[in-house]
Structures are given as C-alpha cells and as structure tokens.
Amino acid sequence: MGAEAMSTPDSASLLPSDWRAALEPVLAAPETQSLFAWLDAEEAAGKRVYPPQTERFRAFALTPLSAVKVVILGQDPYHGAGQAHGLAFSVPDGTKVPPSLKNIYKEVAADCGAGPSRSGNLERWARQGVLLLNTSLSVEEGRAGSHARRGWEAVSDAAIAAVAAKPEPCVFMLWGSHAQRKAEHVPGLADGRHLVLAAPHPSPLSAYTGFFGCRHFSRANAFLEASGRGGIDWA
Taken in order 203, 163, 234, 90, is the CA torsion positive or negative? Predict the structure, then answer.
C-alpha cells in the first residue's frame, strides 16, 4: 500500500525519505492503522494525548536513518502537560528538567567534563545523529505506559531493526530492563558490528545501581571515532 493510500498522522508525512522507506510497511499494516484510528477516537472523546500529533514522529524527522550514529531507547513519552515533544528523555526549552534527564546530565558531566545545562531540550544531540526513540510514541495525560501494547511497539521495532541493518557501525545505549529486552532479539545487534551498551535506567530509583559511572558517552565516542564516523558533542 502506498503512503498516499493509507491513513497516517500528519507528522508521519514529514518523515525523511530513508525512514519512510524503512517504516512504510509497518505504518501501512492493519495493526498500525488500527492504532492511528484508536488515537483519533481517544482525542475525539476528549482525552489529552502527548506529544501533539504533529510531534510524534519528531525523532525520525530530526535524525534521518542515514545520519544515525547512536540510539538511546526510552519507554514512553512524558505524560505531563508541556513536557513531551517527540524525543526520548527530552523536554522543550523552558520546561523543568526531569529527574532522569538530570541524572543523564550528571553522568555526561562526570564522563566527558561537560558543564551543566539549564535546558532539557536534546535537539542538539538529535541533529548530530542521536536517535532519541521511545518504544511508544504517545501517552495519555497523567497515565504513564497507557499506550503500551497498543501497536507502537511494531513501529519502534522496525526502526531499531533498520538502524541495526545499517552497514555503518552504530551505538545502542540500552538503559534499564525494558530497553534491554526490547533490543534483545533485533537481528544484527549481536554480530559485533555495532556497540551495545547496557546499564540501569537513569531514574532516581536506579541511577545509583550502575548508571552513574557507566561512561556510555565517552565509550560511544571512542567507538565512533575508531570507526571513522566522528563522535558526538554531548555538552
């Protein structure tokens, strides 16, 4: 089924061509079409869904498949008003930095010597090739995990598989058991071409059990530079 014949959110129509080619089969699948119809019905019934429809595919729009160097995998978007804007762990400028992102910044500072940031907007990472991907691309206000197992998983699975199939070496940062289980069976991650880094989640509940001190950011850059791809400015 062609892109013109299927029902997709407006933001999906803005996908870069390489992501469109990789994701079109799953976006056209009946299960995903049912997801889109269900989301429309939820919003029509007055439920607030984050992020706005126009931003749900923003991670792909800011980081074309050809540009991906690093994948950071989150679970689902922030469920508070004004927080989610389509990038895992990121919030718009002017929004209070969430606790998990504060811990990410602490590890970046300890690992790479970067100074603290007052902004929680990670677009700068995304534009350098960091795919900030959530497993689910939407959530109901105030209900964490509310859109899990509704169909987004097939989309994020296809995206991870597309990155894993790239000939260029990439880095996968898997924080927490959810992300680690998600990537466990992706073809191409176990053949040694890519670097897979696993650690506990950066949330306040688990950051001190191994996220702090994981040095994922400097390890990613060392791998990328050795592969001739150039590192990420994590500042």
Answer: negative
Distance of CA 126 to the CA centre of its chain: 10
Residues 6+ apart with CB under 8 A from 4: none
pTM flag (> 0.85): yes
Q: Other CB atoms closer than 10 Å to residue 82's CB: what's the count?
A: 13
| Whole-number pLDDT of residue 7 | 55
- Amino acid found at 197: L
Q: Which residues contact 166 (CB under 8 A, 6 or more apart)?
A: 65, 68
What amino acid positions are annotated as catalytic residues? Answer: 76
Q: What is the pLDDT of residue 109?
A: 96
* Structural tokens at position 190: 């176990």
Cα(57)–Cα(138) distance, integer angstroms: 10
Percent of the chain with pLDDT over 70: 95
CB contact set of 152 (below 8 Å; sequence gap of 6+): 35, 135, 136, 137, 138
In the chain, the DSSP E strands lie at 49-50, 70-74, 130-134, 139-140, 171-175, 195-199
Name the percent of the chain in helix, strand, coil, to the closest 5: 40, 10, 45
Between CA 60 and CA 75 the distance in angstroms is 16
- Greatest pairwise CA separation for the chain in angstroms: 52
94-117 pLDDT, tens digit per residue, is 999 999 999 999 999 999 998 778
> What's the pLDDT at 2?
39
* Overall residue count recorded for the chain in this entry: 235
Closest CA to 129 of 188, 65, 186, 83: 65
pLDDT of amino acid 219: 98
The chain-wide mean pLDDT, for the chain, equals: 92
